[in-house]
Design goal:
By secondary structure, the protein is of the alpha/beta class. The chain is 28% helix and 29% strand. The chain has helices at 46-53, 60-63, 124-144, 161-172, 186-191, 224-227, 252-263, 278-290, 306-315, and strands at 6-11, 20-25, 34-43, 74-84, 96-103, 107-111, 115-117, 152-156, 176-181, 196-199, 212-217, 231-239, 268-271, 297-302, 321-325. Strands 3, 4, 5, 6, 7, 14 and 15 form a seven-stranded mixed sheet that branches. Bound molecules: NADP nicotinamide-adenine-dinucleotide phosphate. NADP nicotinamide-adenine-dinucleotide phosphate binds at residues 45-47, 132-133, 136, 156-157, 159-163, 180-182, 185, 200, 218-219, 221, 240-242, 251, 273-274, 316-318.
Length: 327
């Protein structure tokens, strides 16, 4: 059966999602240690938004000063292995995998050790949605926060990509979880297992009289002076992002201010960038298979609607993950 030409999403300049182009490509060649994957679903992250818009400007030396160094940018993907490099053991054609580290395209070639097997009962969309957001939440709470059973954990920004995983992973680690989100996402946060939910549109979590052992600050938006009120004496604040309003610094201004203020206190503030550890994808696959973690898919788009998907992501209030059906 003859297949349609393969498509790939690129951008040759920075700007609104209108800069995105869908182009046809030849099937890329795999390396000896790589696999070729027919992509079924892609999930978007704020990081991908930064690569399209060229913000924060601080990132331009790496991305390309006036225009992108490369028209390609990465996204989370899930799909079916179709080709295997000669040095690769452990995968065969037909295996279903997920990962990151390849362009947003219908067919990608990646190093075999960068992908993990998708559990059979999990959809391609769910697997793709888990890659970066799930890995960030796992590494934050398990490795950086070292969350222990019975600890009180607050997730600020509990309704977006990272936050929906964070609520469930914190529960799986045995924590008593407080989720902070907007009014429309309160029911979702409860359904994900949060013990307490703070609707930030009507209540200020920094004035609720509680003390938290771990504050996972995904949304930013509250200064150290306010967060300090609800931190237990040896609390850890986990920083991964923040408001995207500042075009020059993005979330970095908030992160640096929090780190500096924490340095003068008994609490610690930890900023980290999630590492592409494949063992963590495997750990997440187990959580998905067991039903301990359930990815929340907010909206699905067809490939031809990729610019709309980015526009929605850019509004900054997804209820979970935004995915693209690549088939
Ligand atoms: N360091 C890393 O390795 C790493 C990895 C992944 C992501 N990140 C960063 O983490 C941040 C979040 O990523 P994401 O993928 O979860 O983004 P996302 O899917 O766009 O979700 C952001 C969420 O923030 C919530 N929010 C906005 N304003 C809020 C406020 N004032 N208080 C509480 N919640 C608020 C929104 O929920 P409501 O609709 O309920 O307001 C929205 O759902 C970004 O800055 C991203 O760059 C960092």
């Amino acid at each position: 059966m003859e297949r349609n030409p393969l498509k790939q999403v690129i951008r040759n300049r920075y700007g609104t999602p209108d800069v995105l182009e869908i182009v046809e490509i030849d099937q890329p060649e795999i390396s000896d240690d790589g696999v070729g994957v027919r992509v079924q679903a892609v999930a978007l992250n704020r990081l991908d938004w930064y690569h399209v818009t060229g913000t924060p400007l601080l990132g331009r030396p790496e991305m390309g000063l006036r225009k992108p160094k490369s028209p390609l940018f990465h996204a989370d993907f899930a799909g079916t292995v179709e080709a295997i490099g000669k040095d690769v053991d452990g995968f065969k054609a037909g295996d279903e995998v997920f990962g990151r580290g390849a362009p947003l395209a219908q067919y990608v070639c990646v190093e075999a050790d960068a992908v993990a097997r998708k559990p059979p009962g999990v959809t391609f969309e769910e697997a793709a949605a888990t890659t970066l957001a799930g890995r960030t939440a796992l590494q934050a709470l398990r490795d950086r926060g070292r969350v222990q059973p019975g600890q009180k954990v607050l997730i600020n920004g509990a309704s977006g990509g990272v936050g929906t995983f964070a609520v469930q992973i914190a529960k799986a680690l045995g924590a008593e979880v407080t989720a902070v989100c907007s009014t429309g996402n309160v029911d979702q946060a409860r359904a994900l297992g949060a013990d307490h939910v703070v609707d930030y549109m009507h209540e200020d979590f920094t004035r609720n009289g509680q003390r938290y052992d771990v504050l996972f600050d995904i949304a930013g938006g509250k200064p150290w002076s306010a967060c300090r009120r609800v931190l237990a004496p040896n609390a850890t604040v986990l920083l991964v992002g923040g408001p995207k309003k500042n075009r020059l610094l993005g979330p970095l201004g908030h992160i640096v201010r929090m780190k500096l203020r924490a340095a003068l206190s008994s609490r610690q503030a930890v900023f980290f960038i999630a590492k592409p550890v494949t063992a963590d994808l495997e750990a997440l696959a187990e959580l998905l298979e067991a039903g301990t973690v359930r990815p929340v898919i907010d909206r699905r788009y067809a490939l031809r609607e990729v610019a709309d998907a980015f526009r929605y992501l850019g509004e900054g209030h997804p209820h979970g993950k935004v995915v693209i059906d690549m088939d």
